Structure formats: C-alpha cells, structure tokens
Amino acid sequence: MLLTRSFARVARLDRLDRLDAVLAATVVVLASFSAAVVFLPMLGGQHVEAGLDLVLDTFATVVTFGVAVVAWVRYREIGAPVALFQASAFLVLAVASGASLLFVVGKLDVALADFGLNMPREAQPQITTAGHLMAAALLAIGAAASLGGVRVRQHWLILLGPAVALVAIIQLASAWSPLIPPLSSVFILNSSLSTWSTSQPLPPSPTAFGLGLNLVAGGLFVLAAELTRRHHRRAGAMGDGFLAVGLVFAACGEFHTAFYPGTYGGLVTSGDMLMVAFAVVLLIGIEADSRATRAALGRANETLGRLKDVEVHRAALEERTRLSRELHDGLAQDLWLAKLKIGRLTAMPELSPEAKAVCDELTGAIDTGLADARQAVMSLRLGSEPAMSLRDLMARYVDDFGDRFGLRADFECAGELPRLTPRAEAELLRIAQEALNNVVRHADATVVRVRAGVVDSHVELLVGDNGIGFEPSELKDGCFGLASMRERATIIGGELTIDSRPQDGTRIRIRVPLNRPARHHLEVGQ
C-alpha cells in the first residue's frame, strides 16, 4: 500500500512538473511573439479584417458562455468556490464579448465603409476593458478562496452579480462615454477635429489611462494564472492546469491591447488573437478534463466491481461458517443422540432377533449420515477459510478423508498452485470431494491418490484409485455424481475426462485454464 501511494505521488509530481514546463514554454513563446510584433513592422499589431473581427467576437462569446456553464455544473457537483468564481468570470467575459459583437455588427459609417471599419466608439474599449478587469479579478479571488479554504454563500449573487454589474456599465458607457477618460488617442483627436477625416482613418494609440487599465488587467490575469497553478498543484484537476496556461495567453493579450488598442469595429489586433488563443486553450482543457473524468469514472467502476466481489465472497464465507456450525450443533448431534438411543434399544434382552437386525440397519444408516454430515461440515469449514491456499485445502481434505474411511489417501503437489478465482477454486474442491465419495461408494479401493499441478498453462487435478473400475461407455444416465462433476468443470471453463477399465481402477482428470473467467450459464447438452 505504501509503495502504491509512493508511485501515485511520483506520478502526480511528474504531471505537476510538466505543467510548470508548459507554462514556462508558453511564456517564452509569447514573449518571442511580442518581441516580433514590436520589432518587425511587417507583422504589426493591428489589421483591418472586418469579417474576421466578427468571427472572433462570435467565437469568443460562444466559448466563454459555454465554459461558464461547464464551471457552474462543476460547482453544483463538487461545491468548490473556485468553480463558482470561474463560472461568474466567464459569464462576464461572455457579456463583454457579446457587447463587442453588437458594436461590430452596428451600422457602418459611410465615410469609413471603404476601409471596412466601423465608426470608432468610445464605449467599445471601455466595456471590453471593464469586463476583462472584472473577470481577471474574479478568477484570482476564486482561486485564492479555494486555497484558503473559504466557504462562500449567496452563490447566485456571485454568479450573476458581476454580469449584471457589467450590463449596467454597458448602459453607462453607451450613454456617458464622453464623460469617461478616453482609452485611445483616436477619441482625443476626433474631439479636437471639426470634421471626421474621410481620406484615412486615424491610427489608434493608447492613452495613459487606457495603458494603465490594460496593464492592471494583464497583471490580474498573471495573478490568477499563478493562483490557479497553485490550486492545480493541490487539487490535481486537469481543467485548472489548462486554465492556468490559458490565463497566460489572456495576460499577454492584455499587454498587447495596452499598446495596440482595438478602437474601430472591424480592426483585428494581436491582443484579439491572443484572447482567441485563450478561448481555444479553454476548449482543449474542457475536452481533456472530460476525458480524465471518464477515465477516473472507469477506474472507480472497476474498484466498485472488485469491492462487490469481495463483499459477496465475504458474505458467502460467513454463510458457510453459519451452516457448518448449525450442521455440527444440530444435525450431527441429533444423529449421535439417535445412535445412542438405538444402542440402548439393541441392548434390551427382550428385543427380538428381527428387531435387533433392524436396529443394526438403522445404526449403519446413522453412521452413514454422520459421515456425510462430518464431510459437509469439513467442506464448509474448508471453504470458509480464505487465507488457506487451494493446495492446503486439498491436502487437509485428503488427509481427513483417509482418516475417516480407513483408506490410504495420498496427496501430491509440487510447489504452490497459482491462484484462481474463488468460484473456480471452490468448484475444483467440490469435484475432488465427489470423486473421493465415489471411491468409497463404488470403487472398493484400498488406495487413492490425488495429484495437483500446473501443466501447459492449466491447473490439473488427478484423482486415481486401485478399485474395481468400470467401463465408461456403459455408464447409465442415472450417474448423478459424474454428471455433477462434468457440470462443475464446465462452469469454470474446465474439462473433465474419465479413464477407467474393469479391475484396473479409475482416474479422473480435471484441467482448468489459467486466467479464464467462469461461465455463468451451462450450454445445452453439456
């Protein structure tokens, strides 16, 4: 058990180290990409792609809303505060992306239609920035609350409150955006010009206020990524690992937006592309998390199956012990009492010879019943000792059989037998018992040998005697003992053969393949 836990701990640490390696590689790649955007003018941080802007905003809206639903379902199942705050954060991002989508599909201004750009609106970057700030803060607070073991209440307020607040901000920004400090220089230049230039759209550049807000949002995303990484190290949820990587993309996207703001509807920036990459990582994380959940569910089902088998076996052992005790204390004692009473009856002088003969017959019948009861008790007690191996069970039974019936009974087994299923071992023991009973009843033998071993990937059991033997082809349908042995062998997927000749003894061989499940139903004709 300790070794298993050690291996599990090593495997978990290996997964965590891989996450740190992926995070480090992501940071290096994004830093290289950012440097390329800055120092290679042909790449640029802003491109006019009206159709692509529409597709990206639609994709971001659908993905973030879907992730919010998944996080909410996860919270309802496990009750982790981090899942609740994640649901709230992604709902806020869905509202912000939806608002941007509405700006993109808004009425095109005639002066900018040739460039594929919408009229610059101050509310659009204000709403997007507010949504990203709120979402980053919620993600950081949620991870911190789970790490600190904080219990949250009013989950509906946490889920819907930030989204409702963002809707109110959208209304405020749409109506009073000129009163809010601008996030881009376009609005400053636009307000200072008497007419809008139709020859060329003004290139957007950040203001100090806009730069500060985007950098704060990026810093919050970095903080959320680190706290989510720590939460992943504690809980081991695969979804948190992917979210931590995605938040690095989101943070880098905010840093790009700080220097390349997206002011016009239809203007695609490097920050927009990084936020789309963030959404793609979330989708991959959902798929990986669901796959891991299915795998864990499969392992749990296997464990439950094994526990069920163990419980059924334990119940069977308890029932065997109870039955053996009742047989010993009930039927066997009553038979002994009956034998004593008949002995006293036989000793009476006035008893006629015919009555004494009947008493002798009754005494013989009672002796047979006592032997059968003793054999049944022995069989039940042997089967109720799970710590004993099949080899030890066989050896004990054969020794007891020889002592009870005055026969020379030898048991041979070179080494320990491999473990079979409990059902297979029980049926093999019953077959051996039935074969030995037939020796006493029909063989008139003085020596019986039982040999067990492994031959050609089979457990082989051989019961032979030096009795009178018989002709197997002349067996009648009423031989229930042999039929019972064949049925038991079939149940465990084994094969039973009989080798006997008149005056040459009998040899019964049972072969059971290793690692083969038992059959639950007998086939017709077997």
Please provide a brief summary of the model:
This protein has 526 residues and is of the alpha+beta class.
What can you tell me about this protein's structure?
The strands form two sheets. The protein has a five-stranded mixed beta sheet with strand order 3-4-5-7-6, with helices on one face. By secondary structure, it is an alpha+beta fold. A hairpin with a 2-residue loop joins strand 4 (447-455) and strand 5 (458-465). Helix content is 67%, strand content 8%. It has two domains: 2-306; 388-526, Heat Shock Protein 90, CATH 3.30.565.10. The two termini are 44 Å apart. The model is unreliable at 1-13, 107-120, 187-202 and 517-526 (pLDDT under 50). It has helices spanning 2-39, 50-78, 81-104, 123-147, 155-176, 185-192, 208-235, 238-259, 270-346, 353-383, 390-405, 422-443, 480-491; strands at 46-48, 267-269, 408-413, 447-455, 458-465, 495-500, 506-513. The longest helix has 77 residues, at 270-346. The radius of gyration is 42 Å and the shape is rod-shaped.
Features:
526 residues, alpha+beta, Heat Shock Protein 90, 2 domains, five-stranded mixed beta sheet, 13 helices, 7 strands, 67% helix, rod-shaped, disordered C terminus
Largest sheet: 5 strands, mixed
Per DSSP E runs of 2 or more residues, the count of β-strands stands at 7
How are helices and strands ordered from N to C? HEHHHHHHHEHHHEHEEHEE
Count of individual helical segments: 13
Counting structural domains, the number is 2
Which overall shape is indicated by the principal axes computed on the Cα atoms?
rod-shaped
Distance between the termini: 44 Å
Relative strand content: 5-15%
Low-confidence stretches: 1-13, 107-120, 187-202, 517-526
What would you call the structural class?
alpha+beta
Q: Over the alpha carbons, how many angstroms does the gyration radius reach? A: 42 Å
Percent of residues in helices comes to 55-70%
Spatial sequence of strands, sheet with the most strands: 3-4-5-7-6
- The averaged pLDDT comes out at 78
